[in-house]
Amino acid sequence: MSGEREDLWQALLRSGEAVVTDEDYEHGYKREVRQDLQQYVTFRVSGEVYGLAIHEIEEISKVFQTTHVPRTADFLLGIGNVRGRIMPVIDLSRRLRLRPVERGRAARVLIVHYNEEPYGLVVDEVMDVIRIPPEAMEDKPGGLTGARAEYIRALGRNDGELVIILHLPALLDAKDFVKLAATEEGRS
């Protein structure tokens, strides 16, 4: 049938008659498609809504088993294996120093790529893919300080709800993954 449709379309074009297209049904109004909208995957962590640029996320997986690695930071759940790829798996609520909540069936692992390496970020729930125009984005407030502030790239608004856009390089800073020895912790 698609062959017949193509032949009919080609015949109409060859006939010289005006062919009606989807644009003709716009009733003279041109629908502008914005090219400056950024897409973000939104997810919930400890009741707050966060987002990462869609191009930063390689895959969304169900939560999988991890193996604990001694002398690592408390936010590092361990290492996991997804189809033969070994990766560190991070509890995002602990990394962001939020109060942990009981994870349900909606919990997922966002598999991201940073510095040629895969990482897993455990979140409570993946919500949606949204588009945020530049005018709905704000720099993080200057008064926002402390350890959590470095993990925030920007703040966005989507349907009146605040979305905290995370800064992946700061979240995955390898120097934070190793727990300091007790003697070094006492000196700092």
TrEMBL record:
What Pfam families has UniProt attached to this entry? CheW
Q: Which SUPFAM superfamilies match?
A: CheW-like (SSF50341)
Q: Which residues form a coiled coil?
A: none
Q: Which domain of life, per UniProt?
A: Bacteria
Instruction: Please report the stretch or stretches of sequence annotated as the CheW-like domain.
Output: 37-177
Gene3D superfamilies with a match to the protein in the record? CheA-289, Domain 4, SH3 Domains
In terms of InterPro entries, this protein maps to: CheW, CheW-like_dom_sf, CheW-lke_dom
Q: Write down the PROSITE patterns for this protein, in alphabetical order.
A: CHEW
Query: Would you tell me the protein name for this molecule?
Result: Chemotaxis protein CheW
The organism's taxonomic lineage, starting at the top: Bacteria, Pseudomonadati, Myxococcota, Polyangia, Nannocystales
